[in-house]
From TrEMBL, chains A, B:
Family: Belongs to the ornithine cyclodeaminase/mu-crystallin family.
Domain of life (superkingdom): Bacteria
Protein name: Ornithine cyclodeaminase
The keyword Protein transport is assigned to this record: no
Lineage per the UniProt record: Bacteria, Pseudomonadati, Pseudomonadota, Alphaproteobacteria, Hyphomicrobiales
Organism encoding this protein: Ensifer adhaerens
Length: 353, 353
């Protein structure tokens, strides 16, 4: 019989609670810890069930489910991508996710993941750069100064000590917003008026634009020797940011090749073009950066395991800090086979009331 | 800019609210309306995005995601199946689901679906039987008297006028529970002590047992001419209920062949064994029952479109009856590109408080 009185309950982290949790932990520590959790999971990559995300495409955008499991925990994220959403005040990307116990299939956590995805994307980028950028890197260009840009800046500062930023966006007000938001944190910030200007002297180039189309945000002549490119914005079929010529000069690192071939920058390349799996760099099975002149490219599209890491990190954090409510999500009849009887008892209670 | 002040909010139907909603509408009407919604969606089957469910199997059970879309709405269900769960007071199957707007990707409804799945499974079975059972059917055997059994009985009474039940379960206490729960509703109920006894004179045989293994709940000699078999319990790889010989004597109707080949009774048959798609019977493209002696079999595994129908039915019902709360699930910054700024403003508010 049911011994736990709260089998029906799933902890829920709302947007408000997520913000308070992140602030309570501290943005820098949250990013650093989350990056460590992601790295931990990348290092045990082979234990995960992996599948390319399950996407439902429409004219306006895409809705995706991203499940994975390590055999003990199961996680999935729901995420949409609708570039035109900002026109009526909505987010381009919103997300929520669930962590479950593989042993009984019960959800253990339901959480907003719009903010959490921004954090995990930035943390993943910074982890990758830790292995791929030149060790003395200090300066990062950020092309595209939208919702993800500040998170990238914070993660690269926390993990790599990047403290010089060169910002560019086709919309100068986005650049101003990004610079304003990052003021007072110890960054030296240059607001640039062209991609050319932004990439000048940058050790790392982060591209994080949002248009759903083949675009060449970065051209071949923008990328000098030794640069690490952190390509974040190209993340669905038909959406790329880099000129193909850059790809041909770079060593390309990816999360999960079957998904990146469909969604990443490398959709521009033949399917047999060699790529390196990031997790193998972390375990030492493959080399990351080999020389100061090498161009490294992290073709980031976002993979389910990163969300899994974020979910389990949040689960641990709410155990320590609270910041959740309890949702009556799961039917919990007194006798498990008597789901219908639960309905009858509810009826009697309502009649008595 | 954001004109709707509540873009962050998603209506949430808890287990408690679902029970109250079902009781407010009335179980019979809920089942009948839901069946009509399912039939409506089956009749427009070709418009749906269809994919076999995305399953994550483990030793203990399975966790599945079941997405679909009609191009305007998108729905998915999370559902687990863990046969041993009842040992520690948990449900074998729990579920929740989400309905979203394809146009902007925003969730419009989050709801418990443990109870709702029980209702939609029963409603689907009854819709299928409406086309496949003999028109004069009055008597149904129910083999397996667990959580789904009463819902099946109620749906078959509401939709087809089935008012004679013959119940059997290897656990006699389950049969007693089922009979007790269904008392006073106009059923004539026979509690049987064997499958042989239960199927005697039955026009319809419903099998709805829960063991995750190849089992032969129903043998060939149990099934006489003219019977309609409603096989509900076999619904994952390695889990079947019927003897293969029965399948070979039956005309087999299925929801979505690529999924049923993996999960249904027909996993016992070669991949080329002919099956009939239920939706085509509903649209009149194919005949259902052709003669009084024919054995018809609905090899039900549960398909995403049925959950989609249930989600849109619930969405309409809560618009009329309420029975939901509002979840702060989606980040809604004042300026869509300023997700990070939302965090900063939250910080300022907390500091001021």
């Amino acid at each position: 019989m049911n011994t736990d009185p709260k089998l029906n309950v799933v902890p829920f982290v709302s947007v408000d609670h997520m913000m308070k949790l992140v602030l309570k932990v501290g943005i820098d520590r949250f990013l650093t810890d989350l990056a460590a959790t992601i790295e931990e999971d990348f290092r045990r990559w082979p234990v995960f069930d992996k599948t390319p995300r399950v996407a439902s495409h429409s004219q306006e955008g895409v809705i995706e489910l991203m499940p994975t499991s390590d055999g003990t925990l199961y996680g999935f994220k729901y995420v949409n991508g609708h570039p035109k959403n900002t026109r009526d005040g909505r987010q381009t990307v919103t997300a929520f996710g669930v962590l479950s116990d593989v042993g009984n299939g019960y959800p253990m956590l339901l959480t907003e993941m719009t903010i959490l995805t921004a954090l995990r994307t930035a943390a993943t980028s910074a982890v990758a750069a830790k292995y791929l950028a030149r060790p003395n890197a200090r300066t990062m260009a950020i092309i595209g100064n939208g919702a993800q840009s500040e998170f990238q800046a914070r993660a690269f500062k926390s993990l790599l000590g990047i403290d010089k930023l060169r910002l560019y966006d086709i919309d100068a007000s986005a650049t101003r917003k990004c610079a304003r938001n990052l003021a007072g944190l110890g960054f030296t910030i240059e607001e640039c008026t062209s991609v050319e200007e932004a990439v000048e002297g940058a050790d790392i180039i982060t591209t994080v634009t949002a248009d759903k189309q083949y675009a060449t945000i970065l051209s071949d002549n923008h990328v000098g020797p030794g640069v690490h490119i952190n390509a974040v914005g190209g993340d669905c079929p038909g959406k790329t940011e880099l000129s193909k010529d850059i790809l041909l000069r770079s060593d390309i690192f990816v999360e999960y090749p079957p998904q990146t071939r469909i969604e990443g920058e490398i959709q521009q390349l033949p399917a047999e073009h060699p790529v390196i799996e990031l997790w193998q760099v972390m375990t030492g099975e493959t080399e990351g950066r080999k020389s100061p002149d090498q161009i490294t490219l992290f073709d980031s599209v976002g993979f389910a395991i990163e969300d899994f890491s974020a979910l389990r990190y949040v689960r641990d954090q709410i155990a320590e800090h609270g910041m959740f409510t309890e949702l009556d999500l799961l039917a919990d009849p007194d006798e498990p086979r008597d789901l219908y009887g639960m309905l009858l008892r509810c009826e009697k209670k309502l009649e008595a009331a």
